[in-house]
Design a protein that fits this description.
This protein has 22 helices and no strands. The protein is mainly alpha-helical.
């Protein structure tokens, strides 16, 4: 795709505006770790909601999920988005009040309050590995692939360009810089996605023609023998990555932990839930359109969205689309980097390396580790194009299965079984890796990875139950209650949550 001077100018103005705004909004001196890592717990609902969506929607969706839509999954991949909307309702009403009441900085920290320091350390280590080797590397790769496919940039150079820019404002401004950048970038990616959808409908001959031609790809419920998302996976398997990702994932939950009140946090999460219902239309639909229009040009389904952009966007709008795609990459990457550095600093460095570290030194460590994580991610990212990973979206979801069932089991069991001992959580976290790994042996190739997650989760819950029955905690552990934050819930939260759930059910009926 050739860019004229107007396109280049629009792109440069956008990037400068994002970086400038994020640095300006985070210009105040960061005196404490709460200022740097949680934006001083001062975030309003609209910043939280847009940041949640912008952090989530990146080239992982625009490349990976769109590619799944163009592949053999079709519209059914939208279950990741629509079931996430219901998950977010549950997070807002049940998880968030407990997390804000305890005053935690990180999600692993909650495990220490509920169990003991060791489960916290295990989860922090797991999360660090997955962030650097899987999610950060995957976003860098998919972002680089997008710039390579659309604009002809060298893949490795594109990866390093993305990493360096995101690292600069993330390391300087912390979470406050991230959420303001996400507000701008989130708006741009939604506008850009809607623009692509409209142009796609025009190219395929209209809405009616699209639905008629692709009727076989627009089903949410797939046969039980489907290799990716059979209907059986919707019962339990898909809920595991959803609850892990939206409720126990640091780079998603960190902006809710920075809410100025429970009401602002709940409204922000529910706002994001409403936006999630729209995402499949600007991500999955274009992937199906790309297959219809350019299927013969694809060597891999991950090229679907980039090809649509390359062939449909007219001169004058290319710069904006370039900016929107670049913003989608940045908004996810900055959140991952900020959260990875938070976990390393607060859960590992402060707890196990230098317990008496000052706030100033902790902020410095957080900034240094942001750079380290970018460096490692940029080294790994170019390797992810290997066909053995079966596409970037599958790669992310599959590898997170090595930690997500165990983390979810430890949290859920701990929330409902008050006498569950620390040993039960430790067993679940440690056994997750070998149990899920065994299910990846060739003997179990006929089981889709979502159902492997469900089986792993079931086994871990059984183990935790057995340990609790044999050696229960003598007295329930009293969780801390942090003062200084308004914990009055939003009076509208339940009604907004019900509206999201009903809308999700309606969409499933329409696309049955």
């Amino acid at each position: 795709m050739q860019l004229n001077w107007l396109d280049i100018g629009i792109f440069l103005v956008f990037v400068s505006f994002v970086v400038g705004t994020s640095l300006y909004k985070s210009r105040h001196k960061k005196e404490t770790t709460e200022d740097y890592f949680l934006a001083g717990r001062s975030l309003f609902w609209y910043l939280i909601g847009f940041s949640l969506i912008a952090s989530n929607i990146s080239t992982e969706q625009f490349v990976g999920m769109s590619g799944q839509g163009a592949g053999h999954v079709g519209m059914a991949v939208a279950s990741y988005e629509w079931m996430a909307a219901i998950t977010l309702v549950f997070i807002a009403l049940f998880f968030l009040p407990k997390f804000l009441r305890s005053g935690i900085f990180t999600i692993p920290e909650y495990l220490e309050h509920r169990y003991s320091p060791l489960p916290r350390a295990i989860m922090a280590f797991y999360t660090m590995v997955i962030y650097v080797a899987v999610t950060i590397a995957a976003v860098l790769y998919s972002g680089g692939l997008t710039l390579h496919t659309i604009f002809g940039m060298d893949l490795v150079q594109a990866v390093w360009l993305i990493g360096i820019i995101a690292a600069i404002y993330t390391a300087y401004g912390g979470l406050r810089a991230v959420v303001w950048a996400d507000l701008i970038q989130g708006s741009a990616l939604i506008i850009g996605g809607a623009l692509t959808l409209v142009l796609g409908f025009i190219a395929v001959g209209g809405v009616g023609e699209f639905f008629q031609t692709n009727a076989d790809r627009l089903h949410m419920i797939l046969p039980s023998n489907h290799p990716e998302i059979p209907w059986t996976a919707l019962i339990l398997g898909l809920w595991i990555p959803n609850f892990y990702y939206w409720g126990l994932n640091q780079y998603i939950m960190q902006r809710t932990l920075g809410a100025r009140s429970l009401k602002q946090g709940q409204l922000g999460v529910l706002f994001a839930a409403g936006l999630k219902l729209l995402i499949p239309f600007i991500v999955v639909f274009p992937g199906i359109m790309a297959l219809q229009l350019y299927g013969g040009e694809m060597t891999t389904s991950d090229q679907a969205y980039p090809l649509l952009i390359k062939n449909l966007i007219p001169a004058g709008l290319k710069g904006f689309m370039f900016a929107a795609i670049f913003g989608a990459i940045m908004s996810s990457l900055d959140s991952m980097l900020n959260s990875a550095s938070t976990i390393f600093t607060m859960d590992l460095y402060k707890r196990h390396i230098k317990k008496d570290a000052s706030s100033k030194s902790l902020i410095s460590i957080g900034r240094i580790m942001t750079g380290v994580f970018v460096f490692i991610g940029c080294l790994i990212a170019p390797q992810l194009g290997n066909p053995k990973f079966m596409g970037i979206f599958h790669y992310i979801q599959d590898f997170q299965g090595y930690i997500s069932p165990g983390i979810l089991a430890a949290f859920i069991f701990g929330l409902f079984i008050k006498r569950a001992p620390s040993s039960a959580a430790i067993a679940a976290l440690i056994l997750n890796v070998p149990v899920y790994g065994i299910l990846h042996l060739k003997t179990f190739d006929n089981i889709v990875f979502l159902n492997k997650m469900a089986i792993t989760f079931g086994i871990l819950i059984a183990v935790m139950t057995a340990i609790t029955l044999l050696k229960p905690r003598k007295e329930p552990k009293i969780l801390p209650a942090k003062g200084g934050i308004d914990l009055k819930p939003s009076s509208a939260a339940k009604w907004l949550g019900l509206a999201v759930v009903l809308a999700t059910i309606a969409l499933y009926i329409i696309f049955w």
